[in-house]
Amino acid sequence: MEALATAVSRPWNSSKMTSKHDDSPPKKKRKKSTEVVVGQKNPVMVLNEIKPNIEYDIAASGPPHARIYSASVTVNGKTYTAEDTTKKKAKARVAQMILLYSVQLKDPSVKAPLMEEVVGEVEDFSKDLSEVVCDSEDFFYFESAVTQKVKALPLSATNNADQAKSNPVFYLNRLKPGVKIEIVNEAGSPHMPIYTARVVIDDQTFEGTGSSKKQAKNEAAQTALQKAFNLERTNPPKATTSSTMSSDKPSELEFGDFIARQIESTYQTIMKDEQPSVSRYKVLAGVVMTVGPTADGATVICVTTGSKCINGGQLSMEGEALNDCHAEVLARRGLVSFLYDQLNTFNSNPSESIFERSNGNSLKLKNDVLFHLYVSSAPCGDARIFTLNESLASPLEDLHPNRQGRGALRTKIESGEGTVPVNESAIQTWDGILQGERLLTMSCSDKLARWNIVGVQGSVLSNIIDPIYFHTIVVGSLYHQVHLRRALIGRIEHLQGLPSPFIFSRPVLSTISTPPDRLPAKSPKNSVIWIQGWPEHEVVEISKGKLLDGSPSRLSKRHFFYRFVALASANVEHRSLLQKHVKNGHVTYLSLKQAAQAFGEAKEMLQSSLVIARLGQWIKKPLEQDSFEIPFDGSQLVFSQHSHPDRTPSSPDF
């Protein structure tokens, strides 16, 4: 019926129905469409993409020769109505109204063309205060996985309080229509390219650099806006170009850039002779040690890559497999390996070690030694539960599907990407996993939050050293300061009364000025591990948790266990700890974990506080994986045929 109605000739169009040729039937001349489009799409199409299966109620009024059609739509309990001369136009009008006032779009500038067509003011009830970009003082560098989002710009050169919410390239094109910004140079490594963009305005040349072509163009446009039009950016990022820094205390962003460059340059050096299939990564992480809060005496402790976990069927009852090969998790294990090296150094030459005597028989880190963690992408889990706003031109709702579950514990899924909220009733058993149940591993956000309570040294080392905490956590892409702080600090801030010497550490959270590009869409099958002092790096097959030749990694639980027993055996004060847990000539890994009572108490307090806060129950691995043992005769370590003959305590690798 609608098609039939639109075919009827209207009186006011009769003068346009004549043909230029007498020998052909008259043809209608199509009128230019006056409908507003969003990204080359009709508003009805845009609305259907956001809210599928939306229903329009059409009503007609007026005489047959001059019908007026009314379209009504109910969204979230509120009804919107618009009128026009055709059903199609009426539907477009009401769709425009809903897009303006009932749907929160990623890019507010998308609404600009709609404002010219729709008259009237309707309450915007969809505003999500937790997602407002420009109104939050805590919102610093909220950017996509590919390029950093540029801050708002003033609408004019005057002191106008209003600011443009468009990027510099778009705004420059408004001031100089048709201006061209070209990429003139590409430098750097494949993992961290540096692009240079150039724009010429009134015989003046302006350049900008960035880790992507888009960012380089944005920077060039921003430079042109600042110098040619006197438009300043609010809170501009401070880039650091040199590979070294002065001893003066740098800003957090400068320090983040320095830490990231140290990790990236080290990785390029150790992987220069590797095949691209091995060197490519999705997430890069590492730990840098400094003396004080500056770059003085900076040393790269470890560099790791990876973003997947072991297959459940490959779990090892002997502690020989790496369960979690996410880069930041491996970086912590790399730091533990370095701690073992320094403990051995303390036994032979205390002045050369980073440790010093603490109360009783334990050791502690020297006051001026700090550790800084770098992760090229935000840790998986709660730190990523926010809207990316990846495309400014995409008119989709700015509402994260899981935002109601922010703060909750989340788990990684075996052979899968991303995380899911914990299942309160999930209990992992060894036989259940072997029969096909998916192995669940706590997210990296949850693990980082736990490290802020119990430290990074682990339970076994807690028997002989005080807890060690990260001083700084630097995140590359997907950095959102508000959500990162909630995930690592805010959701456990109510925790009090930790047993001594444990504290609630609140590390400095920082980012970098040029977040790295998202490299491959699919995670590589291997992880790379390099520790300071190693002659060569390791390549781990993630699905099996072991090296490519099937041997255990030097970061495996079993290898750390051998190192601890060898270390404690060489010290009279610590040897008694081992002797207490010897049964039938063997000492078990689980018994030494449980011996660290203060560590266990702090961990239990953390997990209980999360349950009380209704954030979920911490999912544990099957108990059998920590029940392995090694021979010990009560005075010194005895190696069996199952140990590593090429990595004895006396060897440099041990």
3D structure, described in words:
The chain is an alpha+beta fold and 654 residues long. 27% of the residues lie in helices and 18% in strands. The chain has 17 helices and 24 strands. An eight-stranded mixed sheet has the order 18-17-13-9-10-19-20-21, sandwiched between helices. Strands 1-2-3 form a three-stranded antiparallel sheet, with helices on one face. Strand 4 and strand 5 form a beta hairpin. Helix 2 (43-50) packs across helix 3 (87-101). The longest helix has 22 residues, at 327-348. The radius of gyration is 31 Å and the shape is globular. The relative contact order is 0.10.
What is the helix fraction of residues, given as a range?
A: 25-40%
Strand fraction:
15-25%
Q: Name the structural class.
A: alpha+beta
Secondary structure: number of strands: 24
Main attributes of the structure:
disordered N terminus, eight-stranded mixed β-sheet, 654 residues, three-stranded antiparallel β-sheet, alpha+beta
Put the structure in a nutshell.
By secondary structure, the chain is an alpha+beta fold.
Task: Explain the layout of strands and helices.
Blueprint: H1 2-7, H2 43-50, E1 57-61, E2 68-75, E3 78-84, H3 87-101, H4 112-115, E4 153-154, E5 163-164, H5 168-175, E6 181-188, E7 193-201, E8 204-210, H6 213-228, H7 252-270, H8 276-279, E9 284-291, E10 299-305, H9 327-348, E11 355-357, E12 363-365, E13 369-377, E14 410-413, E15 419-421, H10 430-434, E16 440-442, H11 444-454, H12 458-461, E17 472-477, H13 481-488, E18 508-511, E19 526-531, E20 538-541, E21 546-547, H14 557-569, H15 572-580, E22 582-583, E23 586-588, H16 589-595, H17 597-612, E24 629-631
Helix pairs in contact: 2-3, 5-6, 9-14, 14-15
